[in-house]
């Protein structure tokens, strides 16, 4: 009899508990994300425009303007270090001597914060003036800052020299600012 009373008591308690749980409100919750996305991604292809000035050291010091386009690619080799390659094509105007300046550059940089990249550049190219072309080299660097998820702005200074046997290492400099879209 005691076992029977105990069984009935346990069954009644189980029925009452399940009825009480059914009356509780179920409030759905959104789980917290496990992964927080990283900041701006400097890896991959990018393209943009640049404008600025060019300064040469010749018989008389010349100052001119520069406007052009840039396309390049970056690879993070080890956080925070980055390697890249870049092609620049510029239209240069200076005292009636318009020219084209085309450079192929290698870039080595460091991602200082998620949004700031500091880099150095070196490369070679050609300057075309009135059908004459001269071999040139460039050495310099810049700072690039991410402003949105895919857009960055940068400032860059490149020392320019000719590949012939001149007395001066640098015969000019190019200072530009640019806006770039990262794909």
TrEMBL record:
Keyword field contains DNA-binding: no
Keyword hit for Signal: yes
InterPro entries from the UniProt entry: Beta-barrel_OMP (IPR027385), OMP/PagP_B-barrel (IPR011250)
Signal peptide from the UniProt entry: 1-22
Alphabetical list of SUPFAM superfamilies matching this protein: OMPA-like
Protein name: Outer membrane protein beta-barrel domain-containing protein
Keywords assigned: Signal
Stretches assigned to the Outer membrane protein beta-barrel domain: 11-183
Source domain of life: Bacteria
């Amino acid at each position: 009899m005691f076992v029977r009373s105990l069984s009935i008591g346990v069954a009644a308690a189980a029925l009452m508990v399940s009825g009480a749980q059914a009356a509780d409100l179920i409030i759905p919750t959104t789980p917290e994300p496990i992964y927080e996305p990283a900041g701006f991604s400097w890896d991959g292809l990018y393209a943009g425009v640049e404008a600025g000035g060019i300064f040469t050291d010749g018989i008389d010091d010349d100052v001119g303007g520069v406007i052009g386009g840039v396309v390049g690619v970056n690879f993070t080799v080890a956080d925070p270090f980055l390697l890249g390659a870049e092609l620049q094509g510029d239209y240069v105007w200076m005292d009636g001597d318009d020219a084209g300046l085309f450079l192929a550059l290698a870039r080595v940089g460091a991602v200082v914060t998620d949004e700031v990249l500091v880099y150095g550049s070196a490369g070679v190219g050609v300057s075309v003036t009135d059908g004459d072309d001269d071999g040139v080299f460039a050495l310099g660097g810049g700072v690039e800052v991410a402003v949105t998820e895919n857009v960055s702005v940068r400032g860059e200074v490149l020392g320019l020299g000719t590949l012939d046997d001149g007395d001066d290492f640098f015969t000019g400099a190019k200072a530009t600012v640019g806006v770039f879209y990262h794909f």
